[in-house]
Amino acid sequence: MEVDEACERAGGRDYLELRASRCEVGIAGCGSGKVEGSVRLSSGRTAVAVEVKGPESSPSGAPTKPTAGRDGLLVTVRSIVRPISGLAGEREQDLESKVVSFVEGILDPSCPPRTTVTVVVQILSEDGSLLATILNATAVALVEAGVPLFGSPVAVSIAVADSGTPRVRLDPDLREESTCELVGTYAYLFVTEGDQTGASVVQASSMGRSSAETAMLALATAEKAAEAVFHSRRGGEE
């Protein structure tokens, strides 16, 4: 197996090159009610708008339970995902579940207890790597809303063509997703303590068939790509 870094793709990209992205914060307007954080994020021709409401006090008498992945954190996470047009279906419900799981995995223990955080996602256009775009936009909107996070999350999408020698493609478009055997989205949380930074997987999902070796190759490539994005963002903040 090999990762070909030299061969170009549509648009002149190398196999391990991200598409051009653009992020606008404070856009509001994709939901209703009080909005604390909002962002419009595009990756190539995939674009989403995300709004975050909260943390708001949970309704009186509402059941509370520890947030998944965070012992003792009593925060309810809700998500609404709206398609480009028409009514939401099973795919949007699946995306909602993934958004909730992602947010639960990155919240900081200092988040006010017995509160609700609501994430509203509007899909604006789609050309591959949709889930990664949604998760990255959600993370930015949470920060914009002042919701405390346990670290710095980064999500990436990987596609693997497994005919002959497997080829790994970072940030695949729809055409690549439709022709590859494995398409996966991996979200990492980078936590820095002192001068040491560690990364953990907070969410991983994949579609298609692949060997264990191919799946491990995709995971390793995703971690390397996420780490590069993390350091790039960190460098831009300094």
Integer tally of domains:
1
> Which H/E pattern describes the elements?
EEEEHEHEEHEEH
Tell me the distance between the termini.
Answer: 37 Å
Q: In angstroms, what is the radius of gyration? A: 18 Å
Question: What is the mean predicted local confidence, pLDDT?
Answer: 85
Name the features.
238 residues; alpha+beta; Ribosomal Protein S5, domain 2; five-stranded mixed β-sheet; four-stranded antiparallel β-sheet; 4 helices; 9 strands; globular; disordered N terminus; rRNA processing; 3' exoribonuclease; ExoRNase_PH_dom2_sf; nucleus; exosome
Task: Please explain how this structure is put together.
Its main location: nucleus. With 238 residues, the protein is α+β, with helices and mostly antiparallel strands. It has one domain: GHMP Kinase, N-terminal domain (Ribosomal Protein S5, domain 2). The protein contains 4 helices and 9 strands. The strands form 2 sheets. The protein has a 5-stranded mixed beta sheet, with helices on one face. α1 (90-106) crosses α2 (130-144). The longest helix has 26 residues, at 212-237. The N and C termini lie far apart (37 Å).
